[in-house]
Amino acid sequence: MTNPIKIAIHKPTDKFVHIDSVESSDKEIRRHCYCLKCDEKLEAVLEFKDPNRIKFFRHDKNPNCEGSQETALHELAKQILVSNTYIATKEHGVVSYTGAVAEKRLEQKRPDVSATHDDKPIYFEVYVSHAVDIGKEKFFIAGRHRSLEIDLSDCTTTSIDEIKRLVLDETSNKKIFFWQDEQVAETIQPEKEEKFWGKFVLWAVGILIIFGLIKAATKKSRR
Questions:
Q1: Same domain, yes or no: 197 and 171
Q2: For residues 203 and 89, what is the distance between their CA atoms, to the nearest angstrom?
Q3: 217 is in which domain, residue-wise?
């Protein structure tokens, strides 16, 4: 099996279930696991004669569907953020947060997860197959919205513990969009300097042109 299905959606709770968290005794969970891609019921395959085989979900009626695991990983990462209260970053250490919710609208945008840190909003984006577009990044910066991106684009693990570690504890895969006002000042300052020098060059060229015209007019009058 080239692409084993490791993540399913549990319809009664609308939560994502990783196969590692499913036991043989979890009959209620096993009865209601569905594929995110084709919406067909999935069966949890948990026991093997070969001890080296790993657990996985398989389709009851659609064996050709391999499941949308990229989308499922994205949704599972959001669920992990909502279910926890901290995230580690390289720049700011371990950041505690509360009240995390997924897909809450912020003006014209909808961050993956919104929460509160130090009595101020903080926003998390999860990158699996598509990074945050430049428009959304500029929106976070211009609006001074404390925000960061978690990059899971290279995630090939099938372990729920490793996925949690990548989301919460790994620091090399985090990108800060905006954190504090000083960052905006640093971002804007080069633009201001560029505009200043652009205006200076235009002003200098204008002076040279005027000077040249005056000089030419002076020569004519002398003749």
A1: no
A2: 46
A3: 192-223
Residues 155 and 137 in one domain: yes
Domain co-membership, 164 together with 126 = yes
**CA 68/CA 82 separation, integer angstroms:** 21
If you average pLDDT over every residue of the chain, what do you get? 83
Q: What is the 3-state secondary structure (H, E, C) of the chain?
A: CCCCECEEEECCCCEEEEHHHCCCCCHHHHHCEECCCCCCEEEEECCCCCCCCCCEEEECCCCCCCCCHHHHHHHHHHHHHHHCCEEEECCCEEEECEEEEECCCECCECCCEEEEECCEEEEEEEECCCCCCHHHHHHHHHCCCCEEEEECCCCCCCCHHHHHHHHHHCCCCEEEEECCHHHHHHHHHHHHHHHHHHHHHHHHHHHHHHHHHHHHHHHHHHC
What pLDDT does 2 receive?
56
| pLDDT at position 161 | 86
- Residue-wise pLDDT for 23-52, tens only, equals 888 888 888 888 877 888 888 888 776 777
The C-alpha angle with vertex 192 and arms to 190 and 198, in degrees rounded to 5, equals 100
Residue 201 lies in a domain: yes
pTM for this prediction: 0.67
pLDDT in tens, 144-198: 999 999 999 888 776 788 899 999 999 999 999 999 865 554 554 555 555 656 6
| Max CA pair span of the chain | 110
* Tokens describing residue 44: 């949890």
Residues 165 and 101 occupy one common structural domain? yes
